Amino acid sequence: MAKKQHFYLILILGSLAALGPFSIDMYLPGFIDIAKDLHTTESAVSLSLSSFFIGISAGQLLYGPLLDKYGRKKPLYFGLVLYIIASLGCLAVTDINQLIVLRFVQAIGSCATAVASVAMVRDLFSVEESPKVFASLMLVIAVSPMLAPTAGGYLIAALGWKYVFVFLGFMALLMLLASVFKLPESYKPDPAYSLKPKPIINSFLSVLREPQFYTYALISSITFSGLFAYVSASPTVFMKIYEVSKTGYGWIFALLSVSFIGSSQINSLILRWFSSKKIVQWALLAQCIFSLIFLIFALNNWLNLYSTIGFIALFLACLGLINPNAAALSLAPFSKNAGSASALMGALQMGLGALASVMVSLFSEHSVLPMPIVMTAAAFVAMFCLLFSRRFIKHEVEASADATVAAH
């Protein structure tokens, strides 16, 4: 593959993977304005974020089989068109329930891009290359928290929160055009693949029976729920408790994303010397330690704006090491049903993210504490899964930058 072609392929796949995160982050600075305009509370507005997570979780289970039957591009086109329609619908909402429903529909569209991009990495790149490719995708994805809330803050301040959805719809349109004209079909459609419930369930069950998949997919998903707890709580924590402006909030989000970008790129270097398995172990241990200290500070009222930013940055840095390696390890045993495997992994991530988001929204809007509670719980439950579930892996396929080895 030519170097230029490789670059554009990574850029398109990364943009597709980033559509969901961009949709999450860009409207966050408008939570207070949305609550005022729709005559509701910030907690109620955060349920539109939870419904987005639920939509992505449910939709990925739908798109997995579609990607395996019809190839990667046709379901991708459908999802992008649905996303554009839902984005336009958000312009006409008059109450919070309409926004919650339309965000769910928007998520159903965007999850096609998430599942397709991950499956296409598995299609187009070898198991040896995939951790590096996932790290490259993480770089593109990580740019969204730098750009989206900052741009959203200025856009909302200048034109109002509804213009965020104008921008998102236009962004999806550009991705649709890039997918049609620049993205290759990486998987031959399988007409024999059945969309009846029983074969689909059997396909998912065959994935779930693989211990390496459920071990590392759970680790990735549970640690990601800590990220979603932070995302859901951050408008309240930074703009209401610490009284940061809309644009200031966007810049804080951008600053925090640097730790995520940096660690995901450092991961590519570390893979020269350490396996994905070892990186996951040590990064998860560090995440447990940092999140526990964060919780202790919160319980003793020792936190301020700067220490809160610092602890979140450390949590995200660990996540930037855990996620690309856990994703590569969970998908490494699969080839034919990689679409179903990536759909299940995405469903787990977003399902647990929705749960974390709802949990945070149920707590007081006047305390930082819910955020570190959920983040600490996520880190320790993920560590438990690693220690408990890994014993069932009899023949582990290791995904590294240098070689694929079988380890016991």
From TrEMBL:
It is found in: Cell membrane. This is Multidrug effflux MFS transporter. The chain crosses the membrane at residues 7-24, 44-63, 75-94, 100-121, 133-157, 163-181, 213-231, 251-270, 282-303, 309-331, 343-363, 369-388. Coiled coil: none annotated. The keyword Disulfide bond does not apply. Residues 9-394 form the Major facilitator superfamily (MFS) profile domain. Keywords: Cell membrane, Membrane, Transmembrane, Transmembrane helix, Transport. NCBIfam families: efflux_Bcr_CflA.
